[in-house]
Write a structure and sequence with these properties.
The complex is a heterotrimer of chains A (329), B (266) and C (308).
Chain A lengths: L6 H12 L17 E5 L9 E7 L2 E13 L9 E8 L9 H19 L12 H9 E3 L3 E13 L4 H14 L2 E2 L2 E4 L18 H13 L8 E4 L7 E2 L8 E7 L4 E3 L3 H6 L3 E8 L5 E9 L4 E2 H29 L2
Parallel strand pairs in A: 4-6
Antiparallel strand pairs in A: 1-2, 2-3, 3-6, 5-6, 7-10, 8-9, 11-12, 11-13, 13-14
Chain B lengths: L30 E2 L2 E2 L11 E5 L7 E7 L2 E12 L10 E8 L14 H14 L11 E11 L3 H18 L9 E8 L2 E4 L3 H6 L2 E8 L4 E12 H38 L1
Chain C lengths: L3 E2 L30 E2 L4 E3 L5 E2 L3 E4 L2 E4 L3 E6 L2 E6 L11 E10 L2 E5 L6 E4 L15 H5 L10 E9 L5 E4 L6 E2 L3 E5 L12 E3 L4 E5 L4 E6 L14 H4 L9 H19 L6 H13 L10 H14 L2
Parallel strand pairs in C: 4-8, 11-13
Antiparallel strand pairs in C: 2-7, 3-6, 5-6, 7-8, 9-10, 9-12, 10-11, 12-13, 12-14, 15-18, 16-17, 17-18
Classes of the chains: A alpha+beta (329), B alpha+beta (266), C alpha+beta (308).
Chain lengths: 329, 266, 308
């Protein structure tokens, strides 16, 4: 229900927020979220490798992870990677026409994709969370890896869709279980790969492979993998604690609010979306920033907001993680 | 290799083709003795060439060149809003199109997601500057064509400045000129105005746009992984350049104004 | 700051407070059980009854077409749906929002099947009630109401296609300000003598029969605009008055109470709101405590047992 608000309503919301103490339409403090409902795993999408449904007030997002095997020699990828996609249910934005809905979908997809794809050519020594995740996603180094499809569906949008989207993705990645595989060689039937060993001495094989893939289309080596027993008990993704989350701040010149409802978003349209990723030691890293909506800010105010956002993000991650751990260790 | 789909409107290449295999040359180091490959210091932006009046049909236009990046911008404004919906403020439309030959890999001739996201970034940078409440029921259309692209973030920055200049050239009332600067961060420091190779090798990039006349920031965009301290340093580095960029933009506008005046008098 | 729950958040499994209908209005026969019918379900097996809304003849029997409660008045059988769009009657008081401005009329969303119409001739023009409409008024309709404005009006008549025609030709009707709007299912609002309720906590509530409720700062009787002083500046202005913090907090409390009632399908009236507010003050709850599900449940339980 995207109704336009009247000028009197917008002014009432803004005056309440700028009065002291600041008051929101439902009585929350400016930095309070609505009640967050987290459901993970089999109750959401039992066929997926990992899934979660997050509901915050009227905003609901379902996210699911599906792994598929990717042949690294025939694509441009060098290791396990993540591919993101966001779809908006037509019920989420019933007042918008098809093209506008497509635009929202592509905006959400591109921010998700940009955050979850690392810079492959980076010469930096600091590993990103994707580097860590790629280790779990490798099956046969250089040859086969898991392609992680991260799909999210926005079921309804009652405000603050970016935060809920990233929360759902983090929760889905948290309970993703990568099936255990074992490398197998068929070249010499007497030399089966040892269980659990994933690396094969393949110097000679690699150049053979290179030559053969140039001359003929695909001369796939016989080296392959198989699923171990109890493959579905799988292992969690390494680096899942560093998965990024977003904090959206709706900004007024003197005050900012978190988790705005639809009506609050209309009255306070300027927002700053900051995406944080926390390392094991608790150091924060920015994984993305976007400024959306009409308005401009003084530089010092902006820099201050970045610091405030970090505190909120830390709290959110702690609370969300403890919730996820109780549901799924 | 990938099979190109047969398009009967174009002259198609051979059905099956493979790219040539080049010997692996040793990669040129990006920074030697504190200077980048084109002789710039780490905190230097590429020299800017900015001129208005390139597209005579449009109400306002600007052409900008920084290094290898070349961008043309045309503004048609103010015009009647196409759909019947009343709005008491004007609507700013920004459309960006990459020329198919602009990047190393040929781009499709249709608009794709990247065009839209660049357009959104330029829109966000320009929005607070334009006095939309003076143009009810009107639309202000900004068309940006990227002729050559050397660094996506610097494309956005240059496009924002070109668009701002073109809007001023079209006589649209604005609160100030928008300038924009991008930066990349890596282990050896912050590089301003990075080109494609530098972006690829960096850990993260950050783009800042603002109105130096009002002293405010209109857009902030970041990708990759940057620590909070580094991000603040990037923001400061970009912000320091605003004054110089602003001078360049104003200079270009003044020059074109003088040229127009001289032409009117003669 | 962050509170979590693992419930699915759907409505409680027993929203049995389907009390939107006064049993006194219905004339019950012992055999026709006051049950809920589903579409296609046979109600009575003889055709001696006249069929009203929500029924259709199924051969020799009368079947329901909607999911709702049975109503029988003498020989008239009809089924009233549990949830439906607001069905307007002449004289209803509604809170509505302007959607479109057209020549000499406004299109207004009043939660009905169609957008309602507010004619330019049905509003009070500045300068006194007796002022006649001028050409310039037609060109300046946005100075009165523009897209997004909220107003309170009365249903005057129906157009041939079923769209409502509204009027604001009383000093109590017109543009709304100084508050916020809550939406509830229309069934929860019973038809009362007066829909302008002044609660004991200093908050005015306008219960639109269409399910739109306006909660605002209290306007004293003697401060309401008199006939001579019909000033366009104040009546059609968008500026809010100064509202102090206590009133704002009271408005938030009342809004949260209304949302809880809507969630549990509890019918809303001014008596009910006053009682709920007193209960909250007695138990000394904070503003945002009302957002907790437990407190909401406790409130509804208290309302239905103690005060029924």
């Amino acid at each position: 229900m995207a109704t336009i608000l009247s000028k009197a309503e917008k002014s009432y919301i803004v005056t309440s927020l700028t009065s002291s103490p600041p008051l929101r339409q439902d009585g929350r403090a400016p930095h309070d979220y609505r009640i967050i409902s987290v459901i993970t795993g089999d109750e959401v999408a039992p066929l997926a490798n990992g899934s979660a449904k997050i509901r915050v007030g009227g905003t609901e997002v379902v996210s699911a992870v599906r792994l598929e095997v990717e042949d690294l020699t025939s694509t441009d990828a060098h290791k396990g990677r993540i591919r993101c996609n966001v779809t908006c249910s037509p019920a989420a934005y019933p007042h918008l026409n098809g093209n506008q809905q497509d635009d929202i979908q592509s905006d959400l997809t591109s921010i998700l994709q940009a955050t979850f794809t690392s810079n492959d050519g980076s010469t930096s020594t600091t590993p990103t969370f994707l580097h860590q995740m790629s280790e779990t996603l490798t099956i046969l180094p250089g040859r086969k890896a898991w392609l992680l499809n991260l799909d999210a569906v926005v079921l309804s949008d009652g405000g603050n869709v970016y935060d809920v989207l990233f929360m759902a993705c983090r929760a889905a990645l948290w309970n993703t279980r990568v099936p255990k595989t074992r490398a197998v060689e068929y070249r010499d039937p007497t030399q089966k790969g040892v269980a659990g060993e994933k690396t094969i001495n393949n110097d000679v094989e690699m150049t053979d492979l290179w030559k053969s893939s140039v001359q003929t289309k695909k001369a796939t080596k016989a080296a392959d993998f198989e699923l171990e027993d109890y493959w579905d008990h799988g292992e969690p993704l390494a680096g899942r604690a560093r998965c990024p989350i977003a904090i959206t701040l709706n900004l007024l010149p003197t005050v900012h609010i978190l988790d705005a409802t639809r009506t609050e978003e209309q009255a306070v349209p300027l927002k700053l979306v900051i995406i944080y990723s926390f390392s094991q030691d608790g150091d924060a890293c920015f994984a993305g920033m976007r400024m959306l909506g009409p308005g401009d800010l003084p530089l010092e105010y902006l820099k201050g907001l970045l610091g405030e956002g970090e505190k909120y993000a830390k709290n959110l991650i702690l609370s969300l993680d403890s919730q996820l751990k109780t549901q799924w260790s | 290799m990938a099979q190109p789909s047969f398009d009967r409107r174009r002259v198609n290449g051979p059905e099956e083709s493979f790219p040539p295999i080049f010997p692996d040359l040793p990669a040129e180091p990006l920074v030697t003795n504190g200077k980048r490959r084109d002789g710039r210091a780490l905190n230097d932006v590429r020299p800017i060439f900015l001129q208005t009046g390139l597209i005579s049909q449009a109400n306002g236009s600007a052409y900008i060149e920084t290094g290898n990046t070349k961008i043309a911008c045309a503004v048609y404004a103010p015009r009647q809003l196409k759909n019947a919906q009343y709005s008491d403020v004007g609507r700013l439309n920004v459309e960006v199109k990459f020329a198919p030959f602009s990047s190393k890999i040929r781009r499709a001739h249709l608009r794709d997601v990247e065009d839209r996201s660049i357009g959104q970034l330029v829109y966000q940078s320009l929005l607070p500057a334009v006095q939309l409440h003076l143009f009810p029921k009107s639309s202000i259309d900004v068309f940006i064509t990227i002729i050559e692209n050397d660094g996506l973030e610097s494309c956005v920055a240059s496009a924002s400045m070109a668009a701002s200049t073109a809007l001023a050239d079209a006589g649209i009332e604005m609160l100030g000129m928008v300038v924009s600067c991008c930066s990349a961060i890596n282990d050896d420091g912050i590089w301003l105005d990075p080109d494609t190779a530098e972006v690829k090798a960096s850990r993260g990039t950050l783009l800042l746009a603002g109105l130096p006349a009002l002293g405010t920031i209109t857009n902030l965009w970041q990708a990759g992984q940057i620590t909070s301290l580094d991000a603040l340093r990037c923001i400061d580095a970009c912000h320091e350049r605003f004054k110089d960029l602003h001078d360049v933009v104003i200079d270009a506008l003044m020059q074109s104004n003088r040229a127009k005046q001289a032409q009117a008098l003669s | 700051m962050f509170r979590f729950t693992s419930s699915t958040g759907k409505a409680r499994s027993n929203p049995v407070y389907v009390q939107g209908f006064d049993n006194k209005d219905m004339d019950w026969d012992a055999e026709t059980n006051a049950g809920i019918t589903a579409p296609g379900e046979t109600i009575v097996s003889s055709l001696e009854f006249m069929r009203g809304h929500g029924t259709f003849p199924d051969g020799d029997e009368v079947a329901a077409t909607v999911a709702g409660t049975l109503q029988r008045v003498n020989k008239l059988i009809s089924v009233k749906p549990i949830r439906s769009r607001y069905t307007p009657e002449i004289g209803d008081l509604v809170v509505a929002r302007i959607v479109e401005v057209q020549p000499r009329r406004w299109k207004v969303d009043a939660n009905g099947r169609q957008d309602a119409v507010l004619m330019l001739s049905s509003v009070n023009l500045p300068g006194g009630i007796q002022r006649r409409k001028l050409e310039s008024d037609e060109l300046q309709m946005r100075t009165f109401f523009e897209e997004g404005d909220l107003l309170v009006a009365e249903v005057q008549a129906f157009f041939a296609d079923g769209a409502m025609s509204l009027h604001t030709r009383s000093l109590r009707y017109g543009k709304l300000r100084n508050g916020q709007m809550i939406t509830v299912p229309p069934i929860l609002i019973k038809r009362l003598k007066s829909h302008f309720c002044a609660l004991t906590c200093g908050v005015d509530v306008i219960l639109g029969i269409n399910g739109y409720i306006w909660v605002s700062k209290h306007v004293k009787e003697n401060q309401q605009v008199g006939e001579e002083g019909f000033d366009a500046e104040s009546v059609y202005s968008n500026k809010n008055d100064y509202i102090d913090a206590t009133t704002r907090m009271a408005i938030v409390r009342v809004s949260n109470i209304i949302k809880i009632m809507a969630r549990y399908y509890y019918p809303i009236s001014d008596i009910v709101l006053n009682q709920a507010y007193d209960w909250i003050v007695e138990n000394d709850y904070e503003l945002k405590d009302l957002l907790n599900e437990d407190i909401g449940e406790a409130l509804i339980a208290a309302m239905s047992t103690t005060y029924q």
